[in-house]
Amino acid sequence: MSTQLHKNFTDDQVKSFLKSYLDKEIKISYILQILKIKRRRFFELLAKYRKDSDSFSIQYEIKTINRKIDPDIERNIVKALEIEKGLIENKEIPIRYYNYSYIKDLLEQKYNQRVSLPTIIDRAKRNYFYFLRLKRKTHEKEV
């Protein structure tokens, strides 16, 4: 059974418990045991129920979309990766790998955009700006 209240009970079930508590038909300890919540959460729900019992709901509302970044940030990452690619391909400059930390710092300083390093690496892989690092040969000892 889930630990989240909205997954275990419907709005009507919780409303009936709160109404029964207000009518002094059920003790609080019994409700806390059934709903598996603490007193603090119970009284938060009770205050919400008292405020507007008709529109009372325990359903969780997602306010932000996770795991998405702004398209402007995406464009800036790709632009910085293209510049790095040009440096890597230039044989006169001794750069062999992408410097993702530099790209992160560049985005923060130049565009005032904060992005995590794993996000930059993920975008590099998606847009084919990624080199697999070669494994070094192991040294074999002669006996």
- Note the total helix count: 7
Structural class: mainly alpha
Q: Beta fraction of the residues?
A: under 5%
Unreliable spans are none
Mean pLDDT comes to 90
Approximate shape: elongated
- The ordered string of helix (H) and strand (E) elements is HHHHHHH
Alpha-carbon Rg, integer: 28 Å
What does the oligomeric state look like here? single chain
Alpha carbon gap, first and last residue? 61 Å
Largest sheet: none
Helix content: 40-55%
- Count of beta strands: 0
Topology of this protein?
Blueprint: H1 5-8, H2 11-22, H3 28-35, H4 39-51, H5 71-89, H6 100-110, H7 117-126
Structure description:
By secondary structure, the chain is mainly α. Helices cover 54% and strands 0% of the residues. Helix 5 packs across helix 6. The longest helix has 19 residues. The protein is elongated, with a radius of gyration of 28 Å.
Write a brief caption for the model:
This protein has 143 residues and is mostly helical. The chain has helices spanning 5-8, 11-22, 28-35, 39-51, 71-89, 100-110, 117-126. The protein starts with a helix and ends in a 17-residue tail after the last helix.
